[in-house]
């Protein structure tokens, strides 16, 4: 092989560089582990951790990650990501298209607050000194000035108290006691909740995004991964609803029954100028 040809081959091999997987005929290695040694021996949350972090988690870390993933799977057919997937199915698309349609709307508002809450916690952590309450108040002042009064991870349009928070918080506290996590972000989350009560005079409880932000931060995931992990979790709900919808044989199901009209707010009926 000429030097030029060898250079071209070397360049082609270097085009994709990954530390995640190594594949050869008859061999699959995940982060150095032969796949046959992982199958049947590690859980799916373990595999998520290995893929995204490079090493296997401890049992305590895996338990916390799994709990957060389980809690975020679904929130009913009124959730936009779920509703969109179900409507997509009635338009005749395949299951993969329906799931992709649902995932594609998990943006900054529906799907992103967990990541944003992790970023807020990180601001508080970076600013906190001896007085966590004062630091939290200062960070909230700055956050609200930049982003408005809605604080991601707190309050819920449907639940006065989100039923998923207490059991997840109990798991975090247990993990903190046994040394699996530090507990620092749990304290920050509680302090943000307390600061919101001080500011507003009413309870604005932590929601699922707030508590999973605590868990993902405690486990050492960077904020953008918070959204990615939520998407992994919610994809299970999207898939389940899309599959259920395929069994109903309904066609072109819109966001409301046809008997319920939408509101028209345009010009009143008019005629086109005959001279036009």
Strand content: under 5%
Sheet with most strands: 3 strands, antiparallel
The class by helix and strand makeup works out as: mainly alpha
CATH topology of the largest domain: Cytochrome p450-Terp, domain 2
Measured as a percent range, the helix fraction is: 55-70%
CA gyration radius, whole angstroms? 24 Å
Overall number of domains: 2
Low-pLDDT segments, ≥5 res: none
Description:
This protein is mainly alpha-helical and 276 residues long. It folds into 2 domains: 21-57, no CATH class; 58-255, Cytochrome P450-Terp, domain 2 (Cytochrome p450-Terp, domain 2). It is built from 12 helices and 3 strands. It has helices at 3-13, 35-38, 44-53, 59-71, 80-90, 95-103, 113-127, 132-147, 165-177, 184-200, 208-218, 223-246; strands spanning 21-24, 27-30, 33-34. The chain has a 3-stranded antiparallel β-sheet. Helix 5 (80-90) runs parallel beside helix 12 and helix 7 packs across helix 11 (208-218). The mean pLDDT is 95. Pfam families: Citrate_synt (PF00285). One of its GO terms (molecular function) is citrate synthase activity. Residues 267-276 have a biased composition (Basic and acidic residues).
């Amino acid at each position: 092989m000429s030097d030029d040809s060898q250079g071209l081959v070397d360049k082609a091999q270097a085009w994709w560089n990954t530390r995640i997987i190594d594949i050869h005929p008859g061999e699959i290695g995940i982060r150095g582990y032969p796949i046959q040694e992982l199958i049947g021996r590690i859980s799916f949350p373990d595999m998520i951790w290995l893929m995204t972090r490079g090493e296997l988690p401890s049992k305590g870390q895996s338990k916390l990650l799994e709990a957060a993933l389980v809690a975020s799977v679904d929130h009913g057919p009124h959730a936009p990501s779920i509703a969109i997937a179900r409507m997509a199915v009635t338009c005749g698309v395949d299951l993969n298209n329906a799931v992709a349609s649902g995932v594609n709307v998990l943006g900054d508002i529906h799907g992103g607050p967990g990541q944003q809450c992790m970023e807020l916690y990180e601001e508080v952590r970076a600013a906190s000194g001896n007085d966590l309450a004062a630091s939290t108040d200062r960070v909230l002042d700055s956050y609200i000035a930049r982003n408005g009064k809605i604080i991601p991870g707190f309050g819920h349009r449907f639940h006065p108290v989100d039923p998923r928070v207490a059991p997840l918080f109990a798991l975090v506290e247990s993990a903190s006691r046994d040394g699996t996590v530090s507990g620092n972000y749990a304290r920050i989350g509680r302090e943000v909740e307390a600061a919101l009560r001080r500011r507003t005079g009413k309870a604005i409880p932590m929601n699922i995004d707030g508590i999973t932000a605590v868990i993902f931060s405690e486990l050492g995931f960077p904020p953008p991964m918070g959204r990615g992990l939520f998407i992994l979790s919610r994809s299970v709900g999207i898939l389940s609803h899309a599959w259920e919808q395929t069994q109903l044989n309904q066609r072109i199901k819109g966001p409301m029954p046809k008997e319920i009209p939408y509101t028209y707010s345009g010009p009143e009926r008019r005629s086109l100028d005959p001279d036009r």
